[in-house]
Specification:
- The structure is a single chain.
- This protein is α/β, with parallel strands linked by helices.
- The chain has 23 helices and 12 strands.
- It has helices at 3-12, 14-34, 58-74, 78-88, 94-98, 121-143, 147-175, 182-208, 234-259, 266-273, 297-300, 305-320, 340-353, 370-373, 382-387, 393-396, 417-421, 424-436, 452-457, 474-486, 501-504, 507-510, 512-516; strands at residues 39-47, 101-104, 111-118, 217-221, 277-282, 328-333, 358-362, 398-399, 405-408, 439-443, 462-468, 491-499.
- The two termini are 32 Å apart.
Length: 537
């Protein structure tokens, strides 16, 4: 899909894109504002003494990092959560609380973060702080030491520190004496030995104290009640929903465009048939139940955009046959209902308006429609001319309101239309008609239905291939194009019929005021502008 095609698809489906974005964003905004708010509080602990130690030991730091992940796993275990529920008297279970709390411990850090969520910001902070307290309370048990043993160690540590201070004071006092006696020298040596022993004991006690343990838990940032909720986030949800709605709409459009078998523009016609588009005819409208003559826009509404489109088609047909002017033009389509009869009739009108003597021949001997379009009798016509010699053109054709335009209907329908169309008599009649008129336009059956059109295309000067922008399918159009090629037809190009008005042509916006102006109708009884869509034939 090239850039121009992408832009055209975007313009076509733009209402769907806008509606998808608005609906998705609006739904997300409404739902987000109705969801209950959730608040999140965080408390941070540090494991070990990596921050307080002057010269931290590398091995102790590694142990603290490993222990932090253990504490993170322990924080969401049922015994710890049960203690938190009991302490705060929470109306919940351990399983429900486990879904609302989280413990994170990075592998390269000794920090441990406790996160709690709740609809009440104060309660969220209380849960986080209570969980940290339970972890700190559980840490001595994890180390294998009871609180009584820790208290005994702390008591010995204080006593040892007091003895060291007393002995050091006595030593300093003796050391200040200049002329010490032998007894004083002995006491000084005794004090030095005692100090060495006491300091060794102090070092041993410090190794067992919790203040120097690698798994010491310390709160460095207690949880506080958050001011803002973490969810829902209406603006973010609205933006994400809008983007998602746009993406879903784009996916649907891409699938539809990929699977679409229709032909909507000149690029599609060139891709499927290799033909150039000679004209783009806007979708015509008419009153429901009204006469089919309302579809002759070139005759009844010569200043309309549809009439101008037929004049553009006429000009392009003339340019496509500059070297060999077209005397007989076949108008056909791939399947019924693509508007070939209406196109042939309006094309005959605009050629007559240009001063050419035109004869419109209805060669659809199975389902004729020209006589209904011009509101003419069908008692005599082409089949009458084929059956007998010496029949004058005036006897089997009808004058119309448009100067220089005559219409020949089918006449009585024969039982063998294919044989009649392919007969030598048909070739003779067509040659005679071309000698009598400046231009003969032949309306023929669809190519997919019968072979009449393929036979006629081989004996006429040029063929115009009508394609409906709404009903034509690529497979049928491609098959009809191949049938014309096998018959050796001189295909002038294609006419894209029933194109939406906004896509029909660029001149509509520039000449819109001119085309919409009122003009006297050519008929005695004024024909109002049609409104509903006209069925194609």
């Amino acid at each position: 899909m090239d850039v121009r095609r992408l832009i055209a698809v975007t313009r076509t489906w733009l209402p769907l894109f806008i509606a998808s974005v608005i609906l998705a964003a609006g739904a997300a905004f409404v739902i987000s504002n109705q969801l209950p708010r959730v608040y999140e509080a965080k408390a941070t602990l540090i494991v070990g003494q990596s921050l307080s130690a002057v010269n931290p030991d590398y091995n102790q730091l590694l142990v603290s990092q490993r222990l932090s992940t253990t504490y993170a796993s322990l924080a969401t275990k049922r015994p710890i959560l049960d203690n938190v529920i009991t302490e705060l008297a929470l109306p919940t279970t351990a399983g429900d609380l486990a879904r609302r709390v989280r413990a994170d411990a990075p592998l390269d850090s000794t920090l441990l973060t406790i996160t709690a969520q709740d609809g009440d910001p104060t309660k969220a902070a209380a849960i986080a702080n209570a969980l940290t307290e339970q972890l700190i309370a559980a840490s001595p048990t994890i180390q294998g030491r009871q609180s009584e043993i820790q208290a005994f160690i702390d008591s010995d540590l204080k006593a040892t520190e007091a003895q060291i201070e007393t002995s050091q004071a006595q030593r300093d006092s003796l050391n200040a004496v200049t002329n010490r006696t032998a007894a004083q020298e002995a006491d000084l040596q005794t004090l030095d030995g005692r100090l060495v022993s006491l300091r060794s004991t102090l070092a041993t006690l410090l190794a067992f104290t919790s203040n120097n343990a690698s798994n010491l838990l310390t709160v460095i940032e207690p949880a506080i009640a958050p001011a803002d909720s973490i969810s829902p986030r209406p603006l973010l949800n609205t933006l994400l929903a809008a983007v998602l709605g746009l993406l879903l709409a784009a996916a649907v459009v891409l699938v539809v465009e990929y699977l679409a078998d229709g032909i909507r523009d000149a690029d599609s016609i060139a891709e499927v048939t290799g033909l150039s588009t000679l004209g783009t005819i806007p979708r015509m409208k008419r009153n429901k139940g009204g006469s089919e003559i309302y579809q002759l826009a070139a005759l009844l509404y010569p200043r309309s955009g549809v009439a101008e489109a037929y004049r553009t088609l006429r000009t392009n047909i003339e340019f496509s046959a500059v070297d060999a002017p077209i005397r007989a033009l076949l108008v056909t389509s791939s399947v019924p209902g693509e508007g070939k009869t209406i196109t042939a009739a309006n094309l005959a009108v605009v050629f007559a308006q240009a001063g050419r003597r035109v004869l419109l021949v209805d060669a659809d001997l199975r389902k004729p429609g020209v006589h209904r379009l011009f509101d003419l009798p069908n008692e005599h016509g082409l089949t009458t001319l084929l059956r007998g010699d010496g029949v004058a053109l005036d006897a089997v054709s009808h004058l119309t309101e448009q100067e220089n335009l005559r219409v020949m209907t089918t006449g009585p329908l024969p039982p063998n239309p294919a044989e009649l169309i392919g007969s030598q008599r048909m070739r003779t009649v067509l040659a005679s008609l071309q000698n009598s008129m400046d231009l003969v336009i032949v309306d023929s059956p669809p190519l997919q239905a019968v072979t009449d059109s393929a036979i006629l295309s081989s004996v006429l000067d040029g063929t115009l291939f009508v394609i409906d922008a709404e009903r034509s399918r690529r497979r049928s159009v491609r098959s009809a194009r191949q049938a014309l090629a096998k018959a050796g037809a001189n295909i002038l190009g294609a006419a894209l019929n029933r194109v939406p008005v906004k896509e029909a042509s660029d001149y509509a916006s520039y000449y819109g005021a001119y085309f919409s102006s009122d003009e006297p109708e050519p008929r005695a009884n004024k024909v109002p502008e049609p409104t509903p869509e006209s069925p194609a034939r």
